[in-house]
């Protein structure tokens, strides 16, 4: 098992954002603005990076399309133009330096062809090397119900058990068509041993195969959007890519997660917090209202 401290986070951000068209024709969905809890307007990707760094992550790899490298580099690594900088308030001038300091912890990786979420994760293989890593979605932001951030919660669970962890939330059966679903056996109130992962099940399948003991029959455990994974996941992703095994036309992650579970075991953790999806119009609008 991998007992190394989790140092790296991977954030896939190479999608086209088709559900937010036509806005994504000119602005990457990861760069859409939100008002963070500190009252500052910032791109979604910045809030995600800060979540990782504040949880103790040392380096963040952002996977982007080759044509978008300059956009993300400009955000994190380049100072404002000479014309803009003097117009900023003293507080924003100071924040500009903070952004560049943050940029020193960021590596920009590329996905040459957009062939699915699993493929985007695989593009971080050489950078991650033989280390466990935190995997975050590029269009989700998180709000903890406790003083411990959502990312720190899942990192703590990994460090206790030294095996891959998938974060979980409770969803009604009417939402199953939008999420990956998990079955398992409870170890305690919020931690379970995962026995199956299944992407976007039908209600009938979920009722028959994915119900977790002790939960109402119309509620299920679904993926929250944070993972701590051992590097073994890359072996299963590579196998699917080499065999051209696609699901819904793309290389997906969930089936490889289930392979990882079978090979090494996997822990599920019911996060004490909320996840906000900014990748769909209605969800993005609600995030602007509730993420505070």
UniProtKB/TrEMBL annotation:
GO molecular function: UTP:glucose-1-phosphate uridylyltransferase activity
Substrates-to-products reaction catalysed: alpha-D-glucose 1-phosphate + UTP + H(+) = UDP-alpha-D-glucose + diphosphate
A UniProt-annotated Pfam family: NTP_transferase
Keywords from the UniProt entry: Nucleotidyltransferase, Transferase
Keyword Isomerase: no
GO BP annotation list: UDP-alpha-D-glucose metabolic process
Enzyme Commission number: 2.7.7.9
Domain Nucleotidyl transferase: 8-287
Similarity field: Belongs to the UDPGP type 2 family.
Protein name (database record): UTP--glucose-1-phosphate uridylyltransferase
Organism encoding this protein: Dendronalium phyllosphericum CENA369
Lineage: Bacteria, Bacillati, Cyanobacteriota, Cyanophyceae, Nostocales
